[in-house]
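Standup notes, protein team

Yesterday: finished cleaning the Serendipita vermifera MAFF 305830 set.
Today: PNPLA domain-containing protein structure.
Blockers: none.

Input for PNPLA domain-containing protein:
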Amino acid sequence: MDNRMDPSIQGLRVLSLDGGGMNCLSQLQILKEFMARVEYDTKSSLLPCQYFHLITGVGASGVIAILLGVLRLSVQDTSVAFLRLCNAVSLGEMLSPIERSTRLVTETRALLQEYNIPEGSRLRGDLAGGEDCRVCIPYLSVVNMTACRMLRSYAARHSSYNPTIIEAISIAWATPGLFSPVKMGPEAMEEELISAVDGYSNPTIQAVKEAHEFFGKDQRMSCLLSIGVGRSPNRSLFSDGHHIAQRAIRDTERTANHLKHLYAGLQIYFRFSVDRRLEPETSSFDKKLVGHTAAYLELADVDAALNRCVISSLDVSSITIEHLHHTRSSHSYSSHGLPPLSPFFVPRKEPMEKITDALRARVPGSPAIALVIGLSGTGKTQISLKYAYDHNKEYDHIIFIDASSAESIEKGLITRLQSIDRQFRPTSIKAALNLLSYPEGHLSPKWLIILDNADNCEVDLRNYIPACDHGRVLITTRNATLSNLHPGGYIPLDVMSSEEATEALLSTALGPEISPISHFNPTMAPPRSVPRTKRDRECAAAIVEELGYLPLAVIQAACYIRMHKCLHDYSNHLKVSRSILDWTPSVQRDRLQYGHSIYAAFDTTLNALSPRARQFLGIMSFVHFSDFPRVLIAIAASSFFGYQPFDLLDRTSEYTDSLKLLRQVFCPKGTWDQLEFDALLEELQTYSLVTLIPVFAVIMLRFHPLLHGWANDRLAPSNRTLYRAAAVRLLVCGTNSDDDYLWPYLAGHIDLLPLSSKELHVNDKAALAQVLRANRQMTKSFKIWEDIYAIVRIIYGETHIRTTRAALQLASVHSDLGNWAQMELMEREIIAIRIQDLGITSLDTADAMANLARTCKWLGKRYDEAERLETSVLRIRKQLLGPMHRTIVQAMSDLAATCMLKRNYMDADALLLEALDMITALVGEDHVATLRIMSQRAHCFTRSGRRDEASRMTQDLTERWRAIRGEMPTSTPDSLAKLAVSYFEQGQHQEAESTLRDLVESKGKPAAIGCQHDDALDAIHWLASFSFVSERYAEAEMLSKQLVASGWDVIGEGCNKASSALFLLALSVSNQQRHAEAVALWREVVSVWKEARGDQDKDTLEAIGWLAHETAELLKEEKKEANINALGKRYILAKPRSYRNHARGPPISFITKVPMRPVAKGLYRLHTDNVPVFQKMTIFLGIMKHRIVTVYEFIVSPISLMCSSCM
């Protein structure tokens, strides 16, 4: 059906029934009460099929949906028929699935006979009167248990089976473990179908999607009624289906909670479900259930909600099905990083109206754009925030971006988009803008981007505005030339008027004015306010005139006045502050050259602060003005600000002085006190100097850019070096790998530091370079380490221990640029130097050996050599460090990883158990280091086949990560990824799918963190593979592209993983029949695998076969004939595996479980650069989707080369 509204329907009524067992009788009792009230109000007798336009149900409720909508029974008759079927299949008894299915078919056949319905009647088209009510039943295919499909009683645009009613009831209830699958389709393409209750037990979302596709996006809604069967029972309704039942219960409750938030406030969505499930223990279960449900319906809130539901269903709302279909839940609404509105904000009517008008105006081919242009401090950011908060219901996503540089725009957009829908992992600004232009998933077209502080003249904002005709962009800037970007949306924001400024100052300083005729609710205290006098107004007017009516300066003055009760004396304070300003406007940081009175107001506030608060501002003035993690101060204090991961050069007095300053500011009593720090922040907040902004699970500090710059400029030249060193100390203290979840936030602050100059100490540069490396700034990190190594070598010479430490790190970053051979060469040289100078049993020698062992595993799979090295490392560390040390734990972890690669799982588990006991004793059960060892052990369980233990441990890990780092910290995705993989390997595909979706859709940390964690990337790869198997080739392509672009080849079995992602990308494109792109991708795969594995590797040959196939398809598409240069006219096919000793080389067998499109039978002539005449040929025979595919390889005599287009 085309996507247009049905004119015969005024308001659409949709009924969705949760899956369950005999408990579904409670749904019918609730529906009976609903219909009774409808009949009473309409004064007419109605069947559910005459009232609802769409009914959907899953599992047992799918049977009910068929009885109600297809057989057109009353609620009472449906209850009797359903109870009859339940008794026939004996849900509470131990029957085999085959026996229970047979009973269901027999009883359904008898039921149809009683209603005079022919046994062979089909779900769609055979029964009269079904046009007014449509019934859809979700089901799954055994081959692909992740894609929910529909049985429909009506014709639709999407194809679907049209089973008999008996078959439809059997499919609806075909819960694995209870009933047998139902076979459908012709013999050659037959598939087994089962109920979708495992994964879609609450089908409301599927019902909305179906209604959107069938009735059209403009169809208005009357009622969306969802009826459940109760919360989880104490034990299962049946034994065979226990696990599925429990999963279905959890899925139902999770979906219900999701929808409660999703459709909150729409007044057309209603959900009813008894408070708990009963178990069918006795023959009188149905009577007990009736009483239980009746008691539920008598509850006052349920009664009132049911009345509202009936009234809504009889009316036509303004809500369209499009609105329901695209409504986003709170987890996809992106307001993370949106600063709170200042409590001192003064509304300015005219610019607010102009912003609103500009963003409502549409320009073809472009989002609506508004540019708020004005001096710094005029309130541009605040008025933009006011618009965002006032109009938040108009948007699904409000994305606040620091636009002070191209880097901050790109990082901000990518991070915010990843928070909206984690299945989208844009790795470039182009990809991010493309997602905004063509939204899908949880990303909707209803977005607002606020580009704040877009003052940099070198940044072309046109490069960051999506090319689309939806969405809105609000820009704040001091750069007046940007008005040319969109002249129609230009809003100049000047200083406030005299009246506005005076009122702002008095309201902030004295409280809002109370009108003498105001009437207050006697139960509420009136707002506090100091009565205003004529003199108050005169003083305020004089002050704001002196401050040039600049909002920021006015608010600063007002905060000072409020704290010091000095409205009448403030002008004198200004004069004193102005008299001590010792430089001219030409050297001020702000190039717009404000008058001295404005800066005097800032000085007045700064002078009113405590010494510690002023020092804190001075330190913070050397980092970026926004997104500084508050928790970093506490982390730094835990090491007393002395954490130093690298000791390459001796420290100067600057280091000890910076420690003294930090301890003086943050630990004035000698120890860290969180309450003391909170009081310090509160002091700054009192003067409106800092704002606390939640960004996911981390609270960020944000300073106004003008005040931030002023705090820096006010530092005496003699103090600048010390305060910058203190700021650097804070950042370095955040570089411990235990706190790596903060690293993406630190990168923006590190970028402001002169890492390439001699101003920073080498030890600090080394620590900060590690963060840059983790954030994929490989080239910059490499350059820093090159400089560090050169400096240390000049000072200490080639063989000094400090020089070799720098060299070891330089060797490691060589791998980031693909210089693997150079890395290994340097590591071996360093080991030789350390053995000669320090001996083979020194700790530094052991460290270098540990690095080389990892290289052996990464580069050449030389596991035996790696094991020998790591065994020595463990022995040395135990001898020199005593029985317990964290580096010993690391050594055991490394050795265990090697044992797993060698499939020696028993030794690996023994090592990990010892490591777990040790790290728990050292740091506790809930430390990140402990959880990482637990994670590795869970992986060992999975690899060794102990999947139940792996699943339990992974679930425990997930909860522990959430407990210590919030909803979605750095390693929580890792744990979820491993949990998903565990589900996959246990065959629990729907649980795996659900877990992966939870991972990629969660609102925790920025997804950029996940890019640095191999387990999270593994999860993306699983999801990409899962999407491919489910024939979602576009999604598989998108995810594979992200993996290829993520630099996945830097850790672990990197080459294999990266090439696997590239292979999957090529397959996804091939399956979309984009042959030109596929040819280019397969060429790249062939090139990568030839270099990594050689010409004769089975994977290389398979990739060449695909390249040949896609080239042939491209030639067909272009209607060209391939010119074949024959080198031989005959070829001989031999049987598979029968020529082991053939002189031309052994054949290669390859089995893959990746489904592929059918490939034409026959021979594809292969070509490699190094083999002039082919000796091997791959023939793809009978390859079909969803089958295990065997690729037979044969020995072939000399044949022709591939056509030139394949070369």
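Follow-up from PR in the comments: Residues 797-882 form a domain with the Serine Threonine Protein Phosphatase 5, Tetratricopeptide repeat fold (CATH 1.25.40.10).
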